[in-house]
Amino acid sequence: MQETLMQYMPGPHRRIPMMLGRMRSFIARRVRDNAASLQPGVPRDFIDCFLQHMEKEKSNPSSEFTLENLELTTLNLFFAGTETVSSTLRYGFLMLMKYPHVQEKVHEEIDQVIGRLPQDTDVYPLLSSVLHDPSVFKHPNAFDPMNFVDESGRFKRNDAFVPFSSGKRLCLGEGLARMELFLFLCTILQNL
């Protein structure tokens, strides 16, 4: 009932169905283009991955991997992952322009907390300074596995422990390295 009432009310909301239709048409074209140039085993994006799963499950009548679900999921990803961020940024910039005193305060805090580095400055994270921080580790200069165990003897994650670095410089092989270390160490100790 609400949809039928809304279509008779004046206002910019009347453009919403038309805009959604355009978005769905655009996504349907992208799906067709991707399907026409699909190379199995070499997915370029989400649509390719979904199309490959559709192909794998084409004999399953209850599969959720359908063209309609692909279009709707892609539309949801666009609104959830793209439109929300751009809308929030637009609103944030609007508020900062409307309230310049807030903008100035935020700018001062950024300069104070982050500071400025001259262009082309090389920055090297000193992981040893983090790993030996007495405010984070009880015995920072001694081998103490209890730094990573809580009172009940369970593993306790510590965000200050960054042997594989962090941020953009994070070691891509961290998962593999952890697995290898675990398997080798456990196998050797198990066979002593």
UniProtKB/TrEMBL annotation:
The keyword Nuclease does not apply. Its cofactor is heme. InterPro entries: Cyt_P450 (IPR001128), Cyt_P450_CS (IPR017972), Cyt_P450_E_grp-I (IPR002401), Cyt_P450_sf (IPR036396), Cytochrome_P450_fam2 (IPR050182). Heme binds at residue 171. GO terms for biological process: epoxygenase P450 pathway; xenobiotic metabolic process. Pfam families: p450. One of its GO terms (cellular component) is cytoplasm. The keyword Methyltransferase does not apply. GO terms for molecular function: arachidonate epoxygenase activity; heme binding; iron ion binding; oxidoreductase activity, acting on paired donors, with incorporation or reduction of molecular oxygen, reduced flavin or flavoprotein as one donor, and incorporation of one atom of oxygen. Keywords: Heme, Iron, Metal-binding, Monooxygenase, Oxidoreductase. Belongs to the cytochrome P450 family. This is Cytochrome P450 2G1-like. It comes from Columba livia.
